[in-house]
Design goal:
The protein has about 425 residues and is mainly alpha-helical. It is built from 15 helices and no strands. Among the domains are: about 140 residues, no CATH class; about 150 residues, no CATH class. Pfam families: AI-2E_transport.
Length: about 425
């Protein structure tokens, strides 16, 4: 029977038929509910999607804002791993762990402050020496120009021209404007250093408590794996830094002997500089460290700078092929190519910080994976040892060459 209106006339409105779901498809995915109404699940799904997008955007914003803090915490964690053996050894003898951590940090602070003070005094002395000798250098340069180009320059005229030049005034203005920026960067660097030191102290002093808190939320099987990974990380990081420290000591002594024999000033400080920079800046640290001794030696005698360069190159080869493999064989046993690639990857990700922690991190990962990777005996094949496998019936290269030569001869016979 056709639907009618209230006045009895037939109605022209048609009721939308219900959209039936295909066989095997639940009604949840119907585009239109029976009666033309919106499905009940659609508003909840839209709210859930918007909430997930908002949570992702909020998490991404928070991560970018906290990147600096996370990097500082990562540095502090590796520093705590490096001093963990010394702190644990002192704590095993009955000393409180907090006091042991404080003594280790105090010793490191004293050494770093002494090195910075000596290096600063050396640089200040060299700058003063260069300023005092600048008139003599300028006189020699003016005399050479007058003799070469037949000019009549005087030092007074050159100095007045420099003092009244536009580029000097612009440089002074820019320097004065950049004082505030430099001060802000210095204060920011000191705050980051304090943050790293504070987190490192807590990580090292409360190491056992931190491990217990981490293991309390894991099943027993996972607890053993976490503790094993932690122990490997401590061994690799501490071994890496200690082996680098020993190589820095050897490098510093070697360069100190050379500089002292040539009479270069500040030889002890330069030796410490070369030792630290060459070992704790990977790959190119030796050449960067050798630049400052070369500059100081050049002020004494230009040929001394050449001898310093030759010694730096020779010592780098000795360290790469003789000293470093023996010292790091048991602490950081990774291939040089892997170490170089890890340094590049760490630099790309975290800059200088990534370059410093890349090698111990990769060594820890390699040692941890090596404990769980099953290895098999290698087959006795010549190709494993770098030799080419020769077929049983194939002639050798010398035989093929003799036959080819025989075919090119007029008689066409192989020579005897």
């Amino acid at each position: 029977m056709a639907p009618t209106a209230e006045d009895g006339e037939p109605s022209t409105r048609q009721t939308a038929p219900a959209v039936a779901s295909p066989p095997g498809r639940p009604p949840l995915f119907d585009a239109v509910a029976p009666g033309g109404r919106m499905p009940r699940w659609l508003p909840r799904a839209m709210v859930l999607a918007l909430a997930l997008i908002a949570a992702f955007q909020l998490g991404s914003w928070a991560f970018h804002q906290l990147t600096g803090l996370l990097i500082n915490i990562l540095i502090a964690f590796f520093l705590a791993l490096a001093i963990e053996p010394a702190v644990s050894r002192m704590a095993a003898r009955g000393m409180r762990r907090g006091l042991a951590t404080f003594l280790v940090f105090f010793g490191l602070t004293v050494v770093a402050a002494g090195f910075v003070t000596l290096l600063g005094s050396m640089l200040a002395g060299q700058i003063i020496k260069m300023i005092e000798g600048f008139p003599d250098y300028l006189d020699s340069l003016i005399n050479w120009i007058n003799a070469k180009f037949h000019t009549d320059l005087r030092r007074v005229d050159v100095q007045e021209g420099l003092l009244h030049s536009a580029w000097l005034r612009k440089y002074v203005q820019n320097s004065a404007a950049g004082v505030l920026d430099v001060s802000t960067q210095v204060l920011g660097g000191l705050f980051q250093l304090l943050t790293v030191a504070l987190f490192s102290f807590y990580f090292a002093a409360d190491g056992p408590r931190l491990r217990r808190a981490l293991c309390s939320v894991l099943p027993p099987a996972r607890q053993a794996e976490v503790l094993r990974a932690w122990e490997i990380a401590v061994d690799k990081t501490g071994g890496y830094l200690y082996s680098r420290g020993l190589m820095a000591l050897i490098s510093g002594i070697a360069h100190y002997i050379l500089l002292e024999a040539m009479g270069v000033p500040y030889a002890p400080v330069l030796g410490v500089w070369v030792g630290l920079v060459s070992q704790f800046i990977p790959t190119i640290g030796t050449y960067l460290a050798g630049a400052l001794p070369m500059l100081i030696a050049f002020t004494v005698n230009p040929w001394y700078a050449v001898w310093v360069l030759v010694f730096v190159v020779i010592y780098q080869q000795f360290e790469n092929y003789m000293l470093q493999p023996k010292l790091t064989a048991k602490t950081v046993d990774i291939h040089p190519a892997v170490a170089f690639g890890s340094v590049i990857a760490g630099t790309a990700l975290l800059g200088a910080v990534g370059a410093l922690i890349a090698i111990p991190a990769v060594a820890t990962l390699q040692a941890f994976l090596g404990a769980y990777v099953k290895r098999y005996a290698v087959t006795d094949d010549p190709r494993v040892h770098g030799h080419r496998r020769r077929g049983p019936s194939g002639p050798g290269m010398l035989t093929r060459a003799r036959r080819l030569w025989a075919g090119c001869r007029p008689g066409g016979q192989e020579p005897s």
